[in-house]
Amino acid sequence: MSEPSLAGLSLAGRTVLVHSPGPRVAETVHALVSSGATVTVLLAASDPIVSDLADRRLAAVVHGSLTAQLIGEYDVVLRDGAASVPSPAPVPSDAPGEVVLVGGGPGAPGLLTVDAVRALERADVVVTDRLAPVAVLDRLGPEVEVIHVGKIPRGESTPQETINRLLVEHARAGLRVVRLKGGDSFVFGRGGEEWIACAQAGVSVRVVPGVSSALAAPALAGIPLTHRSLTQGFAVVSGHVAPDDPRSDVDWAALARSGLTLVILMGIATLEAITRTLIDAGMSPDTPAATIENAAVTGQRAVRARLDAIAKSTQSEGVRAPAVTVVGPVVDTLPEVGK
Ligand code: SAH
Q: What are the residue boundaries of the structural domains of the chain, listed by start?
């Protein structure tokens, strides 16, 4: 039997039998499944990798050898490793308009996801924030309209209602709209509001998750947010209003007692009040802390100090937004590279 060529073949909805599984069978099955195929692996003897794939419902397993009857039961039969699997079919250009809420990561083009890049490559219009990885927009063709709606801290910004209207109007005109955000759209990104606005207007909307600065900034500073024996979790909170501000609904005292690593976004201006509140609520003043400014982009740096000194250090070092502060014993866990 000759092996089918998969080039140009859409596997969505097809049944595929993979026989003679080799050492890369997991990759083959994952690729087939992500192309929309329903996969069965034919095994002559038991195989722990295939059993794991079956346990995770990625593939069914049949035992035995390849027979004409078996071949007749599947749309496609291939020997493992015989052909590469095509990537998902591109969306046809006459598809109706849609809005894709794309999380762009903390600002470095390398931290965009593959799906984010694909969405950008297909976009007719990109509505972008200033903390998004704006550099990638330079690669878009001249026919793509780029609209900047960035919020400069305490400066000019486009009202959210105007942004919502921009998204809806362009999608209704049949255009593919990417709403490009820094980090993840659903982490302090107002992605929920934009989703609701699209849904209420009957506009198709989907989300591409992004690498949040809440995760990226600590990681790039060599701080694991969890570490066995130190903490069993972390909490991500906004510090945009101080704890004693009537608009604050964060229970800082509970966080101080939680044993969790704290990750504070938008907290530079309020850091003094936040750290004081945490210490007053019983958190040890010598808890390690770090503030990471401009994670993943030019000027990245980290300022480290004890909890009772981090606000002063951050201020004296001239740290400005965007910055993330991490509080907890994990801050001191990893040896700094080069020391
Ligand atoms: N949706 C974003 C957060 C938006 S709120 C995300 O998931 O990352 C804006 C805050 O994010 C900033 O005030 C800062 O606290 C943090 N931030 C965003 N980009 C950052 C970066 N490159 N370095 C450090 N902090 C960043």
A: 15-84, 98-211, 214-332
